[in-house]
Design a protein that fits this description.
The complex is a heterodimer of chains A (223) and B (321). Chain A has helices at 2-10, 19-27, 111-117, 125-148, 151-161, 163-168, 171-178, 182-194, 210-222; strands at 29-34, 39-41, 46-47, 49-63, 69-75, 79-80, 92-93, 97-110, 198-201, 204-207. Chain A is of the alpha+beta class and 223 residues long. In chain A, the strands form three sheets. In chain A, strands 1, 2, 4, 5, 6 and 8 form a six-stranded antiparallel β-sheet that branches. Chain A has a two-stranded antiparallel sheet with strand order 3-7. In chain A, strands 9-10 form a two-stranded antiparallel sheet. In chain A, helix 5 crosses helix 9 (210-222). Chain A is elongated. By secondary structure, chain B is an all-alpha fold. Chain B has two domains: 2-186; 219-319, Helix Hairpins (Orthogonal Bundle), CATH 1.10.287. In chain B, helix 1 runs antiparallel to helix 2 and helix 1 runs antiparallel to helix 4. Chain B starts with a helix and ends with a helix. Classes of the chains: A alpha+beta (223), B mainly alpha (321). The A-B interface holds A 66, 150-152, 180-181, 183-184, 187-188, 190-191, 194-195, 216 and B 270, 274, 277-278, 282, 287, 290-292, 294-295, 297-298, 301-302, 305, 309.
């Protein structure tokens, strides 16, 4: 119980809560461990539990009419996994599939009671708003990536914003995530390297000129 | 289909005829029973009247009330019988009926005479006349009874003849109906078999991912021109689906090859641009054009992949079970 309390207290999302409120939260929560590849929830399903990623990494995706995966965004630790679409309802609706991609600890909170004890009393509201804004930004990036950017801009944005993830993933997975052909990814990297913006040492990409990268995709937004 | 419609109408008419004839036979049966009842009542009344007259003749009470009542009932019964006889009967029956009417009139006249004379005071003349009248009444009554028996026998024969006729008609109509039904169901069996095959194969086209195994419907099972036309249309549809898949597959293949050629050309162009770049001749416009070409090449590659996937899907649709 104390371990769970300490874990909750360590999360930025819950830091504004007082001792008594943390105890209340502990009484309506459970901690679960999941291995890589586990699907936390499927799209269009409903749940009575609010999910919070304590540690690890997850990704949200949807399946299109041709049964292809459409990558939406990553969910990093100390973030809300569940999507809130209706504050009146006592159940949560899942818009996307969520898969664990690095072994994770997930906090499951009884949403009905959480709503009653916290949200209805205007507690954690600013944290919740901040999570929703973060999600909104992720979706804006998705729209840019899918509808506005060309192949070079997509790669440039990822290199600039998430280089760590870029080097962690396989090139094939990156091309799937960005919806470009693997050959195109190679061509783009070649083009960026030739122009002296990046360097590639033993398959690891090193950004030499982050500003130039930002300029590439910003140009697209200005167009 | 025309044959089926004609058969359905025939079966309907046969069923109606059978029902109407059964009702007619039942009415005839009832009329026969009523006629027999009336005739037997008549017989009984003339007997009663005769008995009453003998009784009065042998007694001197001078009362005619019972006789009057019997005569009244007899006349009422005769009128009822006359009503029944208005319907057509055989000539023999009508002739016998006329004979009975004549004899009844004679009998009635004699009874009236007896009744009148009976009321007169007794004397030698009236006694003689009464005796003679009683004799005549006895003989006329006997004739009347014989005539009535003959009439009953004629009715019985006529009814038996009708029964035989009715039985023959019933059997004929039943046999006709049964044969029509058997023929109807045989035809219907063909149509149901055809519809089942038609529905099953149509369903296969709509629900299955594949059209393999959907052979054209055989024309041998069709016995009707409309069914043959439907089979022709269905087979043409199956053929068109197969042809469309083949044509689409060929078109996709050609389009893929064309796109691959364009892809190669763009790649060559990109290589050329790279070589220009590698000579350190940086030109912002050139770089932008290179980006556009990289993106176009990506779109092209993805289009080729989509086309190839579509081709595979089409072939799966056609070949896969």
């Amino acid at each position: 119980m104390q371990a769970l309390k300490d874990l909750i207290q360590s999360q930025t999302f819950f830091q504004s809560l007082e001792e008594e409120q943390i105890n209340l939260l502990v009484s309506i929560s459970n901690l679960h461990n999941y291995e890589e590849g586990f699907i936390l929830h499927y799209e269009n399903s409903t749940s009575s539990e609010l999910l919070f990623l304590v540690s690890g990494l997850a990704r949200a995706y949807k399946i299109d009419k041709h049964e292809n995966e459409i990558f939406l965004y990553y969910i990093y630790e100390d973030s809300l996994i569940s999507e809130l679409s209706d504050l009146e309802s006592s159940t949560l609706y899942a818009y996307s599939n969520v898969e664990i991609i690095e072994d994770a600890q997930v906090l499951k909170i009884n949403y009905k009671k959480f709503k009653e004890y916290f949200l209805d009393k205007n507690l954690l509201c600013s944290e919740l708003t901040s999570e929703i804004l973060k999600r909104s930004q992720q979706l804006q990036s998705l729209i840019n990536r899918e509808f506005i950017f060309d192949a070079v801009s997509k790669v440039s944005m990822m290199l600039c914003d998430d280089l760590e993830m870029f080097n962690k993933l396989k090139r094939h997975d990156i091309s799937l995530m960005l919806h470009i052909q693997p050959a195109t990814l190679s061509r783009v990297l070649k083009r960026l390297k030739r122009n002296g913006i990046i360097d590639i040492i033993h398959t690891e990409v090193i950004v030499k000129d982050c500003e130039a990268l930002r300029e590439i995709y910003k140009d697209k937004l200005d167009d | 289909m025309t044959k089926i419609k004609f058969l359905a109408v025939l079966i309907f008419i046969l069923a109606l005829t059978l029902a109407y004839f059964s009702k007619y036979a039942s009415m005839e049966n009832e009329r026969y029973a009523q006629t027999l009842k009336t005739l037997n009542e008549q017989k009984a009344f003339t007997q009663e009247i005769s008995k009453n007259i003998f009784y009065m003749y042998n007694n001197t009470e001078k009362k005619t009330d019972d006789l009057d009542t019997l005569i009244k009932n007899f006349v009422a019964n005769m009128n009822q019988r006359d009503d029944g006889f208005e319907e057509p009967f055989s000539k023999n029956i009508q002739k016998q009926h006329k004979k009975i009417l004549k004899e009844w009139n004679e009998f009635y006249l004699l009874v009236q005479k007896f009744r009148d004379l009976y009321k007169v005071n007794n004397n030698a003349y009236t006694n003689m006349a009464l005796k003679e009248l009683v004799n005549e009444i006895y003989h006329t009554n006997a004739r009347l009874i014989m005539s009535l028996n003959k009439l009953i026998a004629l009715h019985k024969n006529s009814f038996e003849e009708f029964l035989v006729f009715s039985k023959v008609v019933h059997i004929f109509l039943y046999i006709l109906l049964i044969f029509s039904l058997i023929y109807f169901f045989t035809q219907l069996k063909h149509i149901i078999a055809f519809i089942q095959r038609f529905v099953q194969r149509s369903k296969n086209i709509v629900t299955r991912k594949s059209v393999k195994g959907i052979e054209p419907i055989e024309k041998e099972i069709c016995s009707d021109t409309e069914m043959l036309r439907a089979v022709d249309n269905f087979n043409r549809l199956v053929q068109k689906i197969n042809d469309s898949i083949d044509f689409s597959s060929q078109s996709i293949e050609k389009a893929s090859k064309s796109l691959e050629e364009i892809e190669n050309n763009i790649e060559e162009l990109l290589d050329f641009m790279s070589s220009v770049d590698s000579e350190r001749v940086y030109d912002k416009e050139m770089i932008k054009k290179e980006d556009i070409l990289i993106d176009a090449l990506d779109e092209l590659s993805s289009s080729i992949q989509k086309l190839q996937k579509l081709k595979i899907n089409l072939e799966t649709f056609k070949n896969k079970e």
